[in-house]
Amino acid sequence: MGKSVHYYLSVWYYAIIGLIECVIIVSILSEWKLPSCGQDRWMLMLIAVLGIAGQTFLTKALQIEKAGPVALTRTVDVVLAFFFQFIFFNRAPTWWSLGGALCVVLSTSGVALRKWYNSSRRS
């Protein structure tokens, strides 16, 4: 994407494609209804706003920094998901999910660190 393209262009496509996917899936499932509880509606709006904010920050980070450190930082999502699952939902992760998360974190970290090392060695 580079620095010549405004980062909101990527965020715009993220939102539009997400909207199209949701409309198609909801149409197939015939589930066109809003949650009956007011709190659930606010939670849906909060998820949408935080999703757009996350995509905005990720796109901006990829424009400012090299992909290696950004990808390495993104692996923190997996760790935080397990942490929040345990703290807020009182659900301990299974050994299978911990093993899968470990594979994701190690492989992403390895690739990111290798790219980061190779790019810093060339400069």
TrEMBL record:
User: What compartments host this protein?
Assistant: Membrane
Key words of the record? Membrane, Transmembrane, Transmembrane helix
Which parts pass through the membrane?
A: 12-30, 42-59, 71-89, 95-113
Protein name according to UniProt: EamA domain-containing protein
Task: Kindly give the membrane topology term recorded for this protein.
Answer: Multi-pass membrane protein
Alphabetized PANTHER family for the sequence = ACYL-MALONYL CONDENSING ENZYME-RELATED, SOLUTE CARRIER FAMILY 35 MEMBER G1
Q: Does the keyword Plastid apply?
A: no
Q: Which SUPFAM superfamilies match?
A: Multidrug resistance efflux transporter EmrE
Tell me which residues make up the EamA domain. 9-111
